[in-house]
Amino acid sequence: MAHSAYIKSGKTLGRQAAAIALLTMPALVLAQTEATLPTTKVTAPEQTTPVIKKTKSASAKLTQPLVDTPQTVTVISKEVLQQQGAVSLMDALRNTPGITMQLGEGGASSAGDTFYMRGFAAQSSTFVDGVRDLGAVSRDAFNLEQVEVVKGAAGADIGRGAASGYVNLISKTANLEDSITGSVGASTANNQRFTLDANKVIDDTTAVRVNLLRQQGEVAGRNKVEKNTDGVALSLATGLGTNTVFSLNLQHVKQDNVPDGGTSTLGMPGYFHNSLGNRTAAEVNSENFYGLDSDYEDVSADMITGKLEHTFANGNKLTNITRYGRSKVDRVLHALGGHTLADVNNPASWTVSRSAQSNLQDNTILANQTNLNSRFKTGSIEHELLTGVEMLHESQNSYGRSNANGTAGPVANLYNPNSADTPTVLPTLTGASNKGSTDTLALYAFDTLKLNEQWQVSGGLRVEHYSTQTNNVSISTATSHPTLPVGTKVPSSLEKSGNLFSGKLGLLFKPAANGSIYLSYATSQKPAGGDNFQLDTSNTSANNPALDPQETQNVELGTKWDVLDNKLGLTAAIYQTTNKNELAKLDSATNTFAQYGKRQIQGVELGLVGQLTPAWELSAGIAHMETEVKEGATAASTGIPSDWSPKLSATLWSSYKINNDLTIGGGVRYMGKHKNAKSRTSDAIPGIEDYAVVDAMASYKLNKNVNLQLNVYNLLDEKYISSLNNNRTRYIPGAPRTANLTANFTY
User: Fold this and answer.
1) Dihedral angle over CA of 67, 68, 72, 78, nearest 10
2) Strand extents, DSSP E, 43-104
3) What is the structure's pLDDT at 111?
4) Rounded CA gap, 124 and 159, in Å?
């Protein structure tokens, strides 16, 4: 059966499931820490499932337990990821509200992990074990211990950018316990996945751990699109259990994919085209593939990390991390462009343009971090201080090809595209390139002052000096360089350096040992070229080196409680984030730049994670955002909501262990509508309609070593938009109902 992406509101059961999830939250948030419950004697099944609630972040910069950390932090455990069958970072991020996926800018296709968080683009704020991770790649979860999502301006934590927070991926490392775990799975979408996680103790203080991955096959609901990934990760640690521990971690991931440029929005609710007027058109089959058989995506990502930890006799701890990472993306795809309805009375003749998209890019990072954790007293005040220094070299090189972005490909029939069409231009290197790099030296300090049993003050400051260099080569044309022969390589270079100051301050009150109420303030800055190291002399470019950094301020008031004998964590926060200096214009009279552009996000976020009973685990969150562009580039762009930021989003996942062999679970993901345009644009839809997706899981333990797990995704077969491009002409449909059967083994 063909699956369209028409978003229907008639999925009554899906809406009821979402409503139940949202209505359950207030009752749980109001749970009393000292409630007296009637004594009921029950025989619970043996508890062998690890608790999904984590009490502390793995980040060295978040020194306090999560209940005493004055900002919103969500920790998504590997146990939750396994229950859900989540295999990627994008899958994992569905466990926290306020995050939306994005497809692309105009006609170009964004690839890899591209997402918005609390109203701001956040893909360049992805970290692995506290070190920034570069590259337009899709990250797999095979080597992840947990995923930590830290929300709010985070310049003090991680440096430039980070207007709405960051995502920190925590890797698996060697430990002193022999184990072999893994999985073999297959899906109704015709794909297969194999993982292996083996840890071996070599001697009393040394161990080695190996993680392997192979995933092959198609993508649910999409013709011809494939995702094929191989991965290997090696962790060697020595000195485990002693005061000095050294670990060496290596990871290699290789992808050989058929990329997805999306399908057409024509015929969907709200679609408008000047040629049609007020008439409607039949919706396009959402499985349609508008790319060509020659399209491909080859990705490789490698990193090597050395970590040395020494704990002194007084308990102070010194940590040094050194990493070299490199990723390479080679992608050619054809994404659909505008529609041509030459004969509006003959839909069979309607066509759509294809836009060739090319990305040949490599990213490199060399990082060194040194942190010192110390505890001491000044009078009666207890301090927990972390000081550190970070040195970074980051670079990104992109190489021009003859099928550069925007080159017209062969026209496709709208309703019956042919992937066997011949490309208009073959992908050959032209000699053009864009090369940029940033060197950073940063000093930072974080201190938590425990004034007494009830009051804590915390603060952080990061000072960093950066130097960005852009070295580009363009190819002359008769128009661009009339004095040069056509095809001449024309080099150009730009530089920008400066200092960034970011900080955070928190006041925390503990009315009880298991709870806190806090007020926090945090800032961040993003200089020109802060995302891709590309400086630009254009009068209206935010990457013009004459501009000051963008500035973000975040104020948050929240409360956190660990209830039910600290097995269930409840959180609630209200916040306001303001970002300014996003845009620029040149005053021709004074020949100086004026910076403007302002966005404001106000929101409320609630969350809970942990155990309601020894057999019942629950993870849920709900977020409400009010976003507004206070000052846009034009009158039409002022006063509208921020892109990709629905007012309401929610997530719920729950599992229940019926007995020692059988566990069932399920969840609901709800995303509210987000329509940003003030005016009706031709050849586009207004935005994304709201939707609710229901997933289900059942796991049966065959014996002490093997269990079978069945996951059914999109149980009610909801048709929805997973991601939409900025022009709102093409989209990636959400996966239709799909089943995945996995055999998990443990020895």
Assistant:
1) -50
2) 73-77, 99-101
3) 64
4) 12
What stretch of H or E contains 408?
A: strand 407-413
How confident is the prediction for the chain on average, in pLDDT?
A: 90
Closest of 61, 156, 56, 167 to residue 122, by C-alpha: 167
Q: Which residue is it, tokens 């040394």?
A: 206
Edge-to-edge strands, sheet with 99-101: 99-101, 115-117, 120-121
Decide if 737 contacts 715 (C-beta within 8 A): yes
Range of the domain at 330: 12-746
User: For residue 553, which of 520, 531, 585 has the smallest C-alpha distance?
Assistant: 520
Judged by DSSP in three states, 81 sits in helix
| Residue 3: inside a domain | no
- The secondary structure of 364-384 as a DSSP string is EEEEEEEEEEEEEEETTEEEE
User: How far is Cα 524 from Cα 628, in angstroms, rounded to an integer?
Assistant: 19
Question: pLDDT above 70 covers what percent of the chain?
Answer: 91
Confidence (pLDDT) at 675 = 77
The string of pLDDT tens digits covering residues 91-140 is 999 999 999 887 755 444 556 788 899 999 888 899 999 999 977 788 99
Across-strand partners of 250? 234, 304
Evaluate whether 204 touches 217 at the Cβ level (below 8 Å): no
Report DSSP state, residue 173. Answer: -
Please write the tens of the pLDDT for every residue from 611-627. Answer: 999 999 999 999 999 99
What DSSP state is assigned to residue 637?
A: T
Percent of the chain with pLDDT over 90: 78
Cα 297 off chain centre by? 20
| Amino acid of residue 338 | G
Contact 95, 82 (CB under 8 A): no
In a domain, 401, yes or no: yes
259 token code pair: 């990329």
CB proximity list for 257: less than 8 A, separation 6 or greater: 225, 226, 227, 228, 296, 297, 298, 299
State how far the Cα of 111 lies from the Cα of 158, in Å rounded to an integer.
24
SS3 243: coil
In a domain, 1, yes or no: no
Contacts of 34 (CB under 8 A, 6+ apart): none
From residue 665, give the alpha-carbon distance in Å to each of 34, 96, 246, 712: 29, 18, 39, 10
pLDDT in tens, 698-741: 999 999 999 999 999 999 999 999 999 888 899 999 999 999 99
Spacing of C-alpha 534 from chain mean position: 22
Cβ neighbours of residue 80 closer than 8 Å, sequence gap 6 or more: 52, 86, 95, 619, 653
Of 620, 658, 663, 651, nearest in space to 53 by CA: 620
Instruction: List the CATH number of the domain containing 679.
Output: 2.40.170.20
HEC string for 552-572: EEEEEEEEEEEECCCCEEEEE
Phi, psi of 686 (to 5 degrees): -65, -30
675 CB neighbour count, 10 Å cutoff: 15
Q: Is the pLDDT of residue 270 over 70?
A: yes
Is 6 inside a domain boundary? no
CA atoms of 353 and 331, how far apart (whole Å): 19
What DSSP state is assigned to residue 477?
-
Count of C-beta atoms within a 10 Å radius of residue 24:
16
pTM for this model (two decimals): 0.90
Q: How far apart are alpha carbons 7 and 341 in whole angstroms?
A: 24
Q: How many domains does the chain have?
A: 1
